[in-house]
Amino acid sequence: MADRIASDHPSVQTVRSTCTETATGVKLEVPADDRDAFPTDEVVRVVLDGVELFARVERALTGDELSVPGVYETPDLARDPGGASDRLTEWIDDHGVSTGGSVLIDVVEPEFLYGLRSPGETAYYDAREPPTDSLSEIARDLED
Fold it and tell me: Are 24 and 32 in contact (CB under 8 A)?
Protein backbone atom coordinates (compact mmCIF):
# COMPACT_ATOMS: atom_id res chain seq x y z
CA MET A 1 0.00 0.00 0.00
CA ALA A 2 1.27 3.46 -0.90
CA ASP A 3 2.03 6.04 1.77
CA ARG A 4 -0.26 9.07 2.02
CA ILE A 5 1.54 12.39 1.92
CA ALA A 6 0.14 15.86 2.56
CA SER A 7 0.81 18.81 0.29
CA ASP A 8 2.51 20.62 3.19
CA HIS A 9 4.98 17.76 3.82
CA PRO A 10 8.63 18.93 3.62
CA SER A 11 9.36 16.50 0.77
CA VAL A 12 6.71 18.11 -1.48
CA GLN A 13 7.86 21.10 -3.51
CA THR A 14 5.02 23.49 -4.41
CA VAL A 15 5.10 25.65 -7.53
CA ARG A 16 2.69 28.53 -8.10
CA SER A 17 1.33 28.49 -11.66
CA THR A 18 -0.95 30.96 -13.42
CA CYS A 19 -4.21 29.98 -15.09
CA THR A 20 -4.49 31.49 -18.56
CA GLU A 21 -7.22 31.23 -21.14
CA THR A 22 -6.58 29.59 -24.51
CA ALA A 23 -8.69 29.28 -27.66
CA THR A 24 -9.86 25.85 -26.50
CA GLY A 25 -9.99 26.22 -22.70
CA VAL A 26 -7.32 26.96 -20.11
CA LYS A 27 -3.71 26.10 -19.39
CA LEU A 28 -1.38 26.46 -16.44
CA GLU A 29 1.79 28.47 -16.99
CA VAL A 30 4.83 27.50 -14.92
CA PRO A 31 7.45 30.22 -14.26
CA ALA A 32 10.88 29.74 -15.81
CA ASP A 33 12.45 29.66 -12.33
CA ASP A 34 10.59 26.42 -11.57
CA ARG A 35 11.10 24.60 -14.87
CA ASP A 36 13.62 22.16 -13.35
CA ALA A 37 10.82 20.53 -11.36
CA PHE A 38 9.10 19.32 -14.55
CA PRO A 39 10.09 17.15 -17.51
CA THR A 40 9.59 18.84 -20.88
CA ASP A 41 7.34 17.22 -23.49
CA GLU A 42 6.72 14.20 -21.28
CA VAL A 43 3.47 12.77 -19.94
CA VAL A 44 3.19 12.84 -16.15
CA ARG A 45 0.56 11.78 -13.65
CA VAL A 46 -1.55 14.60 -12.19
CA VAL A 47 -3.90 14.24 -9.23
CA LEU A 48 -7.10 16.33 -9.33
CA ASP A 49 -9.26 15.99 -6.21
CA GLY A 50 -7.89 12.51 -5.47
CA VAL A 51 -8.23 11.21 -9.06
CA GLU A 52 -5.03 10.32 -10.88
CA LEU A 53 -5.02 11.54 -14.49
CA PHE A 54 -2.38 12.48 -17.09
CA ALA A 55 -0.90 15.66 -18.55
CA ARG A 56 1.85 16.65 -20.92
CA VAL A 57 4.20 19.42 -19.81
CA GLU A 58 5.13 21.60 -22.78
CA ARG A 59 7.74 24.28 -23.35
CA ALA A 60 6.27 27.67 -24.27
CA LEU A 61 6.85 28.89 -27.81
CA THR A 62 8.69 31.91 -26.46
CA GLY A 63 10.86 32.05 -23.37
CA ASP A 64 11.75 29.36 -20.86
CA GLU A 65 8.31 28.97 -19.31
CA LEU A 66 6.51 25.65 -19.30
CA SER A 67 2.80 25.02 -19.50
CA VAL A 68 0.29 22.32 -18.71
CA PRO A 69 -2.26 22.67 -21.54
CA GLY A 70 -4.70 20.08 -20.23
CA VAL A 71 -5.31 17.03 -18.04
CA TYR A 72 -6.76 13.85 -19.54
CA GLU A 73 -7.98 10.35 -18.67
CA THR A 74 -5.14 8.42 -20.35
CA PRO A 75 -1.50 8.96 -21.36
CA ASP A 76 -2.47 8.67 -25.05
CA LEU A 77 -5.06 11.44 -24.73
CA ALA A 78 -2.50 13.64 -22.94
CA ARG A 79 -0.14 13.18 -25.91
CA ASP A 80 -2.83 13.74 -28.55
CA PRO A 81 -6.01 15.19 -27.02
CA GLY A 82 -7.98 15.67 -30.25
CA GLY A 83 -11.57 16.07 -29.08
CA ALA A 84 -10.98 14.51 -25.66
CA SER A 85 -12.50 16.06 -22.55
CA ASP A 86 -10.00 18.28 -20.74
CA ARG A 87 -10.41 17.66 -17.03
CA LEU A 88 -8.28 20.74 -16.20
CA THR A 89 -10.96 23.10 -17.53
CA GLU A 90 -13.60 21.32 -15.44
CA TRP A 91 -11.38 21.43 -12.33
CA ILE A 92 -10.65 25.15 -12.81
CA ASP A 93 -14.39 25.86 -13.06
CA ASP A 94 -15.22 23.70 -10.02
CA HIS A 95 -12.59 25.49 -7.89
CA GLY A 96 -13.53 29.00 -8.99
CA VAL A 97 -10.09 29.85 -10.34
CA SER A 98 -10.25 32.91 -12.57
CA THR A 99 -8.09 33.75 -15.57
CA GLY A 100 -4.86 35.15 -14.17
CA GLY A 101 -5.46 33.34 -10.88
CA SER A 102 -3.05 30.98 -9.16
CA VAL A 103 -3.07 27.19 -9.03
CA LEU A 104 -0.56 25.38 -6.84
CA ILE A 105 1.25 22.44 -8.41
CA ASP A 106 2.65 20.00 -5.86
CA VAL A 107 5.71 18.05 -7.00
CA VAL A 108 5.09 14.78 -5.17
CA GLU A 109 7.59 12.70 -7.17
CA PRO A 110 9.64 14.74 -9.67
CA GLU A 111 9.10 13.83 -13.33
CA PHE A 112 6.34 11.38 -12.34
CA LEU A 113 3.58 12.53 -9.95
CA TYR A 114 2.12 16.01 -9.46
CA GLY A 115 -1.01 17.34 -7.80
CA LEU A 116 -3.11 20.45 -8.34
CA ARG A 117 -4.79 22.44 -5.62
CA SER A 118 -6.16 25.90 -4.96
CA PRO A 119 -4.11 28.23 -2.75
CA GLY A 120 -4.97 27.71 0.93
CA GLU A 121 -6.16 24.12 0.43
CA THR A 122 -4.38 21.00 1.64
CA ALA A 123 -4.31 17.92 -0.56
CA TYR A 124 -3.26 14.34 0.18
CA TYR A 125 -1.50 12.10 -2.32
CA ASP A 126 -0.66 8.42 -2.58
CA ALA A 127 3.13 8.64 -2.83
CA ARG A 128 4.86 5.83 -4.64
CA GLU A 129 7.96 5.23 -6.66
CA PRO A 130 7.83 5.73 -10.42
CA PRO A 131 8.31 2.64 -12.57
CA THR A 132 11.83 1.80 -13.65
CA ASP A 133 12.89 2.98 -17.08
CA SER A 134 12.59 -0.50 -18.51
CA LEU A 135 9.00 -0.85 -17.29
CA SER A 136 7.99 2.54 -18.67
CA GLU A 137 9.58 1.68 -22.02
CA ILE A 138 7.55 -1.55 -22.11
CA ALA A 139 4.37 0.39 -21.29
CA ARG A 140 5.08 2.91 -24.08
CA ASP A 141 5.63 0.05 -26.50
CA LEU A 142 2.31 -1.50 -25.51
CA GLU A 143 0.50 1.84 -25.96
CA ASP A 144 1.89 2.29 -29.51
Answer: no
Query: CB-based burial of residue 79 (10 Å sphere; 0-12 exposed, 13-18 middle, 19+ buried)?
Result: middle
The partner residues of 18 in beta bridges, in order of sequence, read 29, 102
Selection from 80, 85, 91, 90 nearest residue 41 by Cα? 80
As a dihedral over the C-alpha atoms of residue 110, residue 36, residue 73, residue 115, rounded to 10 degrees, the angle is 60
pLDDT in tens, 25-56: 899 999 888 888 999 889 999 999 999 999 99
Q: Which has more pLDDT, 101 or 138? A: 101
Q: Do 139 and 45 contact (CB within 8 A), yes or no?
A: no
Task: List beta partners, residue 53.
Answer: 46
Helices (H), the chain: 75-79, 87-94, 133-143
Residue 107 pairs in a beta bridge with: 13, 114
Q: What is the pTM of this model?
A: 0.86
